[in-house]
Amino acid sequence: MSRSERSPLLLAGLLAVAGTAHFAAPRQFDHMVPRSLPGTPRAWTYASGAAELALAAGVALPRTRKAAALAAAALFVGVFPANVKMAVDWRHRPAPQRAAALGRLPLQVPLVMWARGVAKGAEGTA
């Protein structure tokens, strides 16, 4: 299997694992939800988990790959405020936790670029 064939499946796997984690351990995600959003943090945790699972399925299927990958890129941008909130909230935690929270911030850029690359690679297959 070539790298271009593996990349969408790896992205789908990442989204599936992340989406599943939102349901398996929702408490760890609840605290990341910005307080300015309406509704409960748990509702946002479940909604984002469901979105990640749906995007995983979409990216895995060649017919829906381009649209799902573009939506995944948008999701990665959309969750950035939650990562900022986590970094701010964890600024007084022990160094390894602080480092993990801060490390999530620049990680969004390669995730967005990866999803966009998968979408671009899917243009000829749809």
UniProtKB/TrEMBL annotation:
The keyword Transferase does not apply. Its main location: membrane. This is Methylamine utilisation protein MauE domain-containing protein. It comes from the Bacteria. It is found in: Membrane. Pfam families: MauE. It is a multi-pass membrane protein. InterPro entries: Methylamine_util_MauE. Keywords: Membrane, Signal, Transmembrane, Transmembrane helix. The chain crosses the membrane at residues 68-88. Residues 1-23 form the signal peptide. The keyword Phosphoprotein does not apply. Residues 9-78 form the Methylamine utilisation protein MauE domain. It comes from Streptomyces tendae.
